Every structure is written in C-alpha cells, then in structure tokens.
Amino acid sequence: MHASHPLDLGPLYLGIDTGGTYTDAVLWSEAHGPQGKVLAKAKSLTTRHDLAVGISGAVDAVLDKAGVSPAAIKLVSMSTTLATNALVESQGGRVALVMVGFSEADLARDGLKTALGTDPLVLCEGGHDVHGNARALDLAALAATLPELQKSVSGFAVCAYFATRNPAHEIAARDLIREVTGMPVTTSHELSAKLGGPRRALTTLLNARLISMIDRLVAATEGFLDKRKVYAPLMVVRGDGALVSAQFARQRPIETILSGPAASLVGARHMTGLDNAVVSDIGGTTTDVAVLDHGRPRLDPEGATVGGFRTMVEAVAMRTFGLGGDSEVSLEEGGLKPKMSLGPRRLVPLALAGMVHGEAVTVELERQLRAPNPGRMDGRFAVRTGVPEQLAAGLTAPEAKLYDMITAVPQPIDRLLTSNAQNATLNRLVSRGLVHVCGFTPSDAAHVLGRQANWDEAAARLGAELFARKRDGRGQPIAPTPEALSERVLVTLTRLSAEVILETAFAEDGLDGAATVAHALVQRAVDAHPGIARFTVALDRPVIGLGASAPLHYAGLPQLVGNECVVPEDTDVANALGAVVGQVRVTAEARVSQPKEGLFRVAVGELLRDFTDEDAAMALAEAEARAIVAARARDAGTDAAEIEVSVDLKVSTVESQRMFIEAHVLATASGRPRIAV
C-alpha cells in the first residue's frame, strides 16, 4: 500500500479514533472518486497513562504503510469514547455547581443530586420568568465562597432559572467567577436552548467535569502532530456525527459523548453511499445498532443517556446489546433439547488464551477431555486482569483468599473452586474487573471451522470437543463433532444479530414488546416447522455490517431480516474513517414570545429586544440566528458553510382573529472543514 507519488493523491486526511481499548488510524485521499480511497489503516492499544503513545503507534504505522510525508496531511480528525467512558465510570474533575434562582429541592430532579455527589453547590437568588423578565439578582453567596472554592475545584458550572430566555444572570455569575479565579466556567445557555433547568444544570455540570480530560486528549494529539511536523487543523467528532474544531470541543466536551459510535455511522454511510440503512456494529463484547435516515443518523429526541444520566446533548440514537465475537456460550439448564445462548458476559476466548499462555491452557483442556464424564466447569479458566494491586482493596475474606489463588497464568476453574458458593465469589471478582474468565466463544468456533486464524486453533478445538460432550435432557451429547457444535454457535450468533436488528427497528417504530416480537419472528424464520400461523418480516432498508468480524457473522442475515446486508471493505476502521469524512454542522436558535398583547420579545444568544411589530421581531430573530450560526461555524472549523433557516410558528384563531403565541427560529450551518494550505 505504498504511494510512490504522494503529490498525485491530492490532499491527504488523517482519521484517528481513540477508544477504550484500541486507537485506530486511517489515511484517506479524496482523489479517487466520490468515496475517495483508504491508503492505509492501523490499530494500536490505547495507552491511558499517556494517550500520545497509543496515538503515535497507530499514526506512525499508517504513515509508514502509505509511504507519505507527514507534511502532505492537510486535515486531522478524531473521534473518541473517552468522554463516554468517563461518565460511565464516574470520572472527571471536581466542579462547583452554581445555581441561580433554584432551590435545593430542584436537586432531586433528573438525577442532579446523584451526579453532583460531594462536589460543592452554591445557591444564589435571581433568575428569570418564562418571558425573560428578571428577578432580583444576589451573588453575595457566590462572591463569599470563591476564594476557598478555587483551591479545591477544577472549574465551575453555572445554571440560572430560565437562562435560555434571558442569560443575563448566568453571564453576571460567569464574569464574577472569571474575574476572581480565572478558572474555566461553563454556562448552561451556551450548551442548550431547551427548557428544563435541572437537566440543563446536569448537562452543564458534566461538561465542566470533562473539560480537563478532553484537554489532555487534544493536547496529546496536538503534541504528537507537532513532533511529526503535521501542521493541519485538528477536528473532533461530536455525538451527532458532525465535526467541530478541537478548540470548540475543548469548550464543549460533553458534546463528544457517543462520538465513536457517531463516527462509525458517518463512516458507514460514506463507504456504502446508502442514505437509508440500519447500521449494526459488532465487536468482541457488544453489538451497537442505529438507523440512518436521509444520510444522517437518527438522533435521540430526549438527549443522550450516558452513565445513567439523561443529558440535553444531541447524539445518535444507539441501542447496545451484549452480543459479540467473545460472548459467553452457554446452554439452558434442564431442557430435553437445551437452547444455546450467547452473552451478555464477555469471556477471553480459549484460542486467545492458548496463543498467549500455550501449554498452561492446552494441557488442562486435554486433562479434562480424558475424564470419562463431562464436568460443569470444563473449558473454563480464571486469570488476573493485571490491574494495579490497589484496585483490589476492600475485598472480603473469601474474595481475598480466592484472588490470591488466581495468578497471571490461567487456572482451570474445576481445580480452583471447591463449592458453588465460590462460583459466586469468582463472579464478584469478575464484576470488579480483577479477574477474567476464559471459555468457549464464537471466536473459538470460527477458529475450529477455519474462518478465523489469528489465534490458537488447537486450544479452540479442544474447547469445542469439551463443550460438544455436554449432555441434553436425554443424556445424549449436544453435538456429534466439534465442527457441528461450532456451526451451531455461529448460526446462533447470526440469528441473535437478526433479533437485535429487528428489535431496534421495531423500537424505532414505537412498537411495544419489540424484543419478544423480534425473537418470535426470527425463530419462525429458522424453524423447520414454522407452525400454523406463518409470519414474514422485511426491513424497508438494507443493513450495513460494521466490525472486523461482520463479514463472517452477517453472511446469513439477509434471509432473516428480509433485506440485503452490505459489509464495506474497510468495515474494521469505520470510526476512524467517519472521523475524517464528516462535515461541520452547528446550530443557533432564536425565540419570539409575546409577554403581553402587542409586544413581541426576541431572545437570541445574549440579546433580548422588544418590538411592537411582529414582522420586525421575526426579521431580527432570523438575522441574529444567521449571524450567530455563521460565527459558530467559523469557530467550529469551516469557512464555507451553507446556512438553512427553519421557522416553527405557533398561532391560534380566536373569533376569526389570528393570535400570535410563539415562534422558534432554527439556523443550521454545515460545510466541509477548512484544510491546511
């Protein structure tokens, strides 16, 4: 994949995806038709202690493969799951929340009290009503606490009552904080124009916590690019799939939650050219399913939910299922013909454990095979995850005893555990992230059948032989050969993939009981005797399969979902590619209300103005929204934005007279990011 004449390739674009486990990089050129061309791609382990190490590992590899000079890169764009992971794991800086016009009782709404935890809270008098009329503002409590707060927090979050209708009191609090402390301040009106004070406060609080984390990611990337003499603009993918400049993302890091999945959707559309599709991304642990409509991901109308908190951030409507190539394979207990199930727990595949640990795994599997009867724990091992010892603090006596017996080399569970109670203890160690369980997975089945060959096939085959010996309710082996068992596992994974895809489609259509209906329909489709009542179902759009294992597991999908399944050539780096081919898209909103008859109030940005003429008020609202969105587009990284304006006008008719109620003006600017010249 070497390029002997890089100058003939046109501008080169570098895409990076920093995930929880791997950092992906892709080098892309647009000089090869409408889809462009992936010149090189690479993966490197994400290095949490120093993100630049993982980034450099992936980027250096793609530059070497493509044989191009770093100076030829004209744009760098990245997606990340770090913000999402931080919220899920309750990480982030200590932040002071300043609420103006609210009471302590408001903390009970929308999970705000839980999210705040032990971080400091400052309540001040003030705020506005629904029309933007001010109450008396008193910031004395804030002024008194600022000298002490600046010693113990990394930033401030400010939310005022009805600040979306008049942000004056948030601005006053922000200016006071900056004047006294010089520290970062996030105000709620900058993040959302939606009503709902407590949830807006929650969104603002989480944003303030994430600023230092995204700062580190951007700084690590910029530092690496500078060392490699890559002097190109750096962009970041938002949770709705749009690109924004790194500086823009630093101020609004909350908007990067679900950045990785959003980038995958953008990459899926780019690689296939499909505007309408169901996108299913299968990994080792989970399958993520979302819907593309008219070339853009469907967004969650209620705002993204991450770590149990519902925010006001627009992000892709993504459904995640515990189903992947490394899912646990198990059988239901006690059935005459026991059903096979996969997940939701992830196991370390035996093939991977065998590759890393060799005879420590295969010798024990052979021992278990020599036993005259199958055992319940056959083919199962426990191994330490390698986390720092301090994370094992606080274990109970039984947990500590078992943990001491488990080492960095896999231990066979049939010799490790002596009672069922110890099995529960082991599961607690797994849930704390201290121990991995190794066992038979779909990845092993693929190795047995020769459809995957990157790990140890011998360990996988031994595991399949052990699993095939398990007995059904009649005392017969559940499969005659390792190959037959492995085929059944892969068929089950494809069937369950169809179920989660259909479940997502039914849920998007607003149908109740989506999971039950999806299961029944797919079961009828694969059943040799479908019954008296016959059902058929078909998606109205194709499926795009993403993930390194998608070509294997999605080959049998079309007959189950009633439409084709498209698996792009570069499906394994869809997120990194999506990061680099997306567009900048930002919005600005204006509202026109009528506080009293004959008075039209325009609220847009930090402007509040009254008119006695409706047309004049509407004209100003649209002009200001256009001007604000044009400035935001420049800040977000594009010099060639197209602006569209939509107006939602609410009126009523009383005794044949038209009555103005409210108008909502939405200006949207979109365009390709600027590149280095």
From TrEMBL:
GO terms for cellular component: cytosol. Residues 14-180 form the Hydantoinase/oxoprolinase N-terminal domain. Gene3D superfamilies: 3.30.420.40. Residues 200-333 form the Hydantoinase A/oxoprolinase domain. Pfam families: Hydant_A_N (PF05378), Hydantoinase_A (PF01968). One of its GO terms (biological process) is glutathione metabolic process. GO terms for molecular function: 5-oxoprolinase (ATP-hydrolyzing) activity. PANTHER family: 5-OXOPROLINASE (PTHR11365:SF2), 5-OXOPROLINASE RELATED (PTHR11365). This is N-methylhydantoinase A/oxoprolinase/acetone carboxylase beta subunit. It comes from Aminobacter carboxidus.
